[in-house]
Amino acid sequence: MSELSRKRSADPAAIEMLNLAERKQYETIWDRLEKQQPQCGYGQLGTCCRLCTMGPCRINPFGEEPTHGVCGATADTIVARNLARMAAVGSSSHSDHGRGAALLLKEVAIGKNKDYRITDVEKLKAVATRLGINTAGRSYLEIASDVADVAINCFGKQDEEPIIFLQKYMPKKRIERLKEIETMLFEKTGKKMGLLPRGIDREAVDILHRTHFGCDADPLSLMMQTVRCALSDGWAGSLIATEIQDILFGTPTIKTVKANLGVLDAEYVNIIIHGHEPILSEKVVEIALSEEMQEAARKVGAKGVNVAGLCCTGNELLMRQGVGIAGNELHSELAIMTGAVEAMVVDVQCIYPSLAKLSNCFHTQFITTNEQAAIPGAIHIQFDEEKANDIARKIVQAGIDAFPNRDKSKVYIPSNISNAIVGFSVEEILKILGGSVAPLVDAIAKGSIKGVAGIVGCNNVKVKQDLYHQELTKELIKRDILVIGTGCWAIGAAKAGLMDISAQGLAGEGLKAVCKALDIPPVLHMGSCVDCSRMLVLAGALAEHLDVDISDLPLVGSAPEWMTEKAVAIGTYFVGSGVPVHLWPAPPILGGPEVTKILTEGAKELLGGYFFIEEGPEATAKRMEEIILEKRTALGI
Ligand code: SF4
Ligand code: MSK
After folding, report:
1. What is the DSSP letter of 309?
2. Each residue of 582-628: pLDDT tens digit?
3. 311 assigned ligand-binding residue
4. What is the pLDDT of residues 47-101, one digit of tens each?
5. Domains of the chain (ranges, CATH numbers)
6. What is the pLDDT of residues 325-377, one digit of tens each?
7. Where do the H-state alpha helices sit in 110-171?
8. Using CA positions, which residue lies closest to atom 7 of ligand 2?
9. Sign of the C-alpha dihedral, residues 82, 83, 87, 88?
10. Is residue 2 predicted with pLDDT exceeding 90?
11. Is 515 known to sit in a ligand binding site?
């Protein structure tokens, strides 16, 4: 085993593949990180600006000249503008995903799209009821049409009222608190600083406008708009994606799945689906598993077609269809290197452009499908929801056609595979609790469960893959803190066996007893990145049950290996919802002392939620536990 590979990943399957990469000289994302060293210190601190052509400008972090950009912008202004733009991009990515789901629901409801259907009528009615849409005596298609209209309206409405989804899902106490902060800030500063989002598209455009040359230079005002934009993601864009995908494809139910590269099967045509939106991946799975395609695969000498997921679209498939997951984001190159992948099919987000070049070393068809993620060197098969069946057939056939070109001498699939119990939608959690959050609240009140930690986010090649995810998770459950989460963290936890029932043995006595009684692992998979909205809904249900604000609850979040702008949006909407959030690596804000203070101390006072930075799983778990204990004391439990 190469020392280098072991430094790069905590996952034994990844280590094997990294050894292979080293032997065969396949370039990986880890190699490219090395070539980037030393990385720019100004960039890491957030103090470089290239918003206009008088720049780029950089601020000296040691207080020497230059202390201002050419236009006079301070380090704090530059840091705040950069962070706001990150949140706007992250929110936009999630929300545009939600828009796609809403538009598809409308097309299905009015009969324009015949390739998709509504799978979960019960969820449709529940969402409609929550939104105040009449369901009595109406057909489910009529109801779906209205739900889609309400969702679509959240994107483009122009009035000043808060977005309907947020109004109907966010607990009243949190809405009131946000309103009070708006009023207080106005009284104190004379400046209008809104926190309640008016329209999903509007809040992102607002950031693009106010960060244009010569607009908002006030760190506080910039940060408040950042929170508003992020809230439009969590309580609307992402939430719309989750709720409508449940309606279209089914609300996840508890099931056992397989995780890690061992889900690939050398005797089958292996198709990996990577990206984010289940609109594509659900269809590819449905078509790939059809008898027609299985037979086509047998004709070329395979035993059939095997579909595996990767990243968040993998999480969507695993939650709803029980499809095995080949890995998280840092596994995407490694999966291709197994030489056993006939097609890697991608839609949007978290897809390395490097995959095109790497696929050329193999017979792998690297297939892009979305005009928002075209990648040079890939085979592009444009997806179109109205012709979904035909296009999915073409995609699967491309994989089958590649099978005879597989070079068997290049095939190496690590045998690592873990069992994971997944599918913890809020509906399933309520079901196992007997229909209400009361038993969970009781367990928290008694102290068998001290609190709940939500861990989310990516792999980041700067952090040893999965190590922080796994060790932090173990440290928390050992301390009787229930861990829930999504995204690439969830895949890391699944690969490490932390979502297996046997993980109960790693939990503290109190948490273990609760998990045994409910027959669940101590680490719950709640879905993809957009499904962080499920955690908000759960937090909202707990808060409403106790008639407190979310910020009063013993809840804490962490993104210990984060890297994308979407993670900035997620972290910020948790903070805006009242949840303290740990980040590692440190975000690019440390060059702006005022911004750092606003996001840590200021946010705590204003919002109840705030960011904190901590390095190392044990220190982080300790700090998260302290926060939970503080909240418990304040609640008098
Ligand atoms: Fe420099 Fe100001 Fe232009 Fe930014 S906006 S590049 S700080 S002159
Ligand atoms: S896929 S945003 S690398 S979690 Fe959602 Fe993973 Fe982060 Fe992408």
Report:
1. E
2. 999 999 999 999 999 999 999 999 999 999 999 999 999 999 999 99
3. no
4. 999 999 999 999 999 999 999 999 999 999 999 999 999 999 999 999 999 999 9
5. 3-58 (no CATH), 75-248 (1.20.1270.30), 261-410 (3.40.50.2030), 425-635 (3.40.50.2030)
6. 999 999 999 999 999 999 999 999 999 999 999 999 999 999 999 999 999 99
7. 121-131, 140-156, 164-169
8. 458
9. negative
10. no
11. no
Max CA-CA distance within the chain? 74
And the tokens for 387?
């012709």
Contacts of 326 (CB under 8 A, 6+ apart): 260, 261, 263, 264, 272, 308, 309, 310, 314, 335
Token pair, residue 222, equals 């910039």
Q: How far apart are CA 319 and CA 420, in angstroms?
A: 11
Q: From the CA of 69, which ligand is nearest?
A: 1
Q: Which amino acid type is present at position 318?
A: L
Is 49 annotated to bind ligand? Answer: yes
Q: Is the pLDDT of residue 493 over 80?
A: yes
Is the pTM here over 0.95, yes or no? yes
pLDDT at 1 over 90: no
| 72 CA closest ligand 1 atom index | 2
Atom of ligand 2 at shortest distance to CA of 328? 6
What DSSP element (H or E) covers 100? helix 75-109
Amino acid letter, residue 514: V
Q: Is the CB of 66 under 6 A from ligand 1?
A: no
Written as one string, the DSSP assignment of 168-217 is: HHS-HHHHHHHHHHHHHHHHHHS-----S-S-HHHHHHHHHHHTSTTS--
